[in-house]
Amino acid sequence: MTLRLELNGITKRFPGVIANENVSFAVAPGEIHALLGENGAGKSTLVKIIYGVQRADEGTIAFDGRKVEIASPHAARSLGIGMVFQHFSLFEAMTVLENIALGMDNPPPRRELEEKIRHVLNTYGLSLDPHRDVHTLSVGERQRIEIVRALIQNPKLLIMDEPTSVLTPQEVDRLFDTLRQLKAEGCSILYISHKLHEIKALCDTATVLRGGKVVATCDPAEETARSMAEMMIGGSLKDLSPKNDGVYGEERFAISNLSAPGEPPFGVSLKDVSFAIRSGEILGIAGVAGNGQNELISVLSGERTDGVSGVIRLDGSDLSKLGVGARRRAGLAALPEERNGHAAIGQMTLAENTLLSARGPKLLAGSGILRTGKAHDYARTVIEAFSVKATGPKAKAGSLSGGNLQKFVVGREIMTDPAVFIVSQPTWGVDAGAAGFIRQAMIDLAAKGAAILLVSQDLDELLELCDRLAVINAGKLSETMDVKTVSIEKIGLLMGGVHGEDDAAADAEMHRGKAA
Amino acid sequence: MSVQLTVAIMMTIAGAATPLLIAALGELVVEKSGVLNLGVEGMMLIGAVAGFAVAYSTGVPTLGAIAALIAGALVSSVFAFLTLSLMANQVATGLALTIFGTGVSALIGAPFVGITTSTLGPLFAFDNPLLRLLFGHSPLVYLGIALTIAVWWFLKHSRPGLILRAVGESDDAAHAIGYPVLRIRYLAVLFGGAMAGLAGCYYSLVLTPMWAERLTAGRGWIAIALVVFASWKPGRVLLGAYLFGLVITMELQAKAAGFNMFAPEFLAALPYLATVAVLAIISFAPQGGANAPACLAKPFRATA
């Protein structure tokens, strides 16, 4: 049998780094092949080479047994390679139809195209309205546009880059059904992910990349998630030391009836959000990106006070009228999702970055004068305590890798011993080692009596760290649920917009889901 | 009011509106591709002087208009190179372009100050006021209206127009799919420059068939405001341009009629005050920016 795709000795160098070194593997027709690796292992570069966005420096690619040069995405598409991007390449202010037309080289006239789209939607049981503007759609629907865009050109090889990171569990199941149907039709799929249980459930073969090189090839069905994770990081995985379950103190952080307008142009407004966190407790907020998480963080941190109503209490005193600095002095530390440019300033040194948020709690400034010596010492303490790989407090924040910078900013906040720690996506795009470290630091902080609010899209992380869990959807927060008793199905339904008020309806839907 | 006067006023409105319309349509296409060129005023002045110089030396006003097109595109290519290839700040470069255009046009125009040339006037002369109102304008007036329809159709229904909008909406996504972002933006900027140049020569070849320093008197800024006012829709640009044409004409008519309730300076400032008011209202309105191209004025660097 001819192989669908065969890579031979692919090498790609960037100034200072080798992204891919002598990478070889093959994908058979109708095979779902996983590409595994940590961030920075070279998966994305490799995929861009296959899709013609980048050229390899060395090595050859064969498609359907013929050696090919893939010079552009156009060339890739005409060979029969389709791609679904991790960061969707969609145009928000345009319709679904226009977006699909833009992804094709020679789209047929409007009406014919619409018919074709409906045909693809019917064949794979997907639902999507071609005339809606993209910015009105949920993340799952947006991904469907990307998938339809690829499928409409009858690909022989479909590349999917981290397709499930933004989906609810139910949407993931539906996606897998579509992928299995494609496989049955003989389409090969190159599936990139770091979610190991998904790879176990879906893929036939896995190629593991580390530092740009192929380090292993395995059958995911015969491996455990842990063994694959260890192949990825090239070492053994450390277990988190357990939380002291059920040992909570007084209520420390209480929000009631918080409402706020969304960020323009397409933001989500917060609607009557209430919750409370006790001392020593971690409350998780799950939800698909863009459902009000950023708004919630910026309202709690004090970055946004315009049009905000409701009460924010820390140890009984109302913070809702205070600005960012005053809230920090009161013991509230908040860390936004975006580390570059929001949590840290890349052009400034680590010492200078500590001044941004820790100057009040750590007395790094007073009477209008910065105490740079103290800031320097504090930065050094953080670097040592959180084993941040950096040349020292004088290193520019921008020179650190994502994982190390994240460790630094988390450390900067945690070492001020905050009463309340609010954090969004702390391990997004962070390697497994650093992620474990950050999670442990949060558990330890809670053990010291802090109240922690963890906003994340990673359900596994939430289930591992949190004591209780709530789901945010379209700016509304569900009731909080105990992590030990909650079901994944219920969380998934809440993420998809079935709200707690109609529990009966949700239950019915769940049962149908289980029966199907 | 006599029929003659009414027609004369309406003709003046069309005359005042046309250069705004043409320049604004050009800028609309530029902005739809995600580039903000604030140098419209400068490009209009260059077009005005180039058009006048060529029309005067050859005696053929049509050649003047063509020269204005080319001159506008040439100056805008400098802007395109600086902002697209060298990734200079678009706002600063646009302002510099206006200052540059003002200076260079004054320099080139120095020998032409005070002389007149043959104009790019109406193709047909009519005594009947209605016929004159319909067919008695400069060809550029009709071109402006045709251009509105053409730009609307191009953006809404043609594939290149769709791609242009896509580039302005998300340059990274367009690049990832495989569209040449920079090439598309270059072409858009050149088109915008050509249209600004053409609009400029309307002042030196139609309205006042002569050259004077700063002849366009800040109308380039009105054109930029018009694009925002029209929320990037060609039909509304047409409407807005004629509305501004009306305001400008009111000022002229009031002066002619000896209307002196307000100082003449106030009336002269009216179109510019209206511009400021429109921009202020639009930026306050919650949905105001919603239709703006998402990548407007953002430099694009191909990352992968």
Automatic annotation (TrEMBL), chain A:
Record's GO cellular component, any one? plasma membrane
Stated membrane topology is: Peripheral membrane protein
Q: Tell me yes or no: is ATP-binding among this UniProt entry's keywords.
A: yes
Q: Where is the ABC transporter domain?
A: 5-236, 253-499
Localization, UniProt: Cell membrane
Q: Cell membrane among the record's keywords?
A: yes
Sorted alphabetically, the keyword list is: ATP-binding, Cell membrane, Membrane, Nucleotide-binding, Repeat, Sugar transport, Translocase, Transport
Q: Name one Pfam family in it.
A: ABC_tran
MF terms per GO, please? ATP binding; ATP hydrolysis activity
* Primary location group: membrane
Q: Which domain of life is it from?
A: Bacteria
The record's comment on protein family reads: Belongs to the ABC transporter superfamily.
Q: What is this protein called?
A: Sugar ABC transporter, ATP-binding protein
TrEMBL record, chain B:
Transmembrane helix: present as a keyword of the record?
A: yes
User: Where is the chain membrane-spanning?
Assistant: 6-26, 38-57, 63-84, 91-113, 133-155, 186-205, 266-285
CDD domains assigned: TM_PBP1_transp_TpRbsC_like (cd06580)
GO MF assignments: transmembrane transporter activity
Cellular localisation: Cell membrane
Q: What is its main location?
A: membrane
Keywords (A to Z) from UniProt: Cell membrane, Membrane, Transmembrane, Transmembrane helix
Entry GO terms, CC: plasma membrane
Q: Pfam families per the record? A: BPD_transp_2
Membrane topology, as annotated, equals: Multi-pass membrane protein
According to UniProt, the name of this protein is ABC transporter, permease protein
Species name: Fulvimarina pelagi HTCC2506
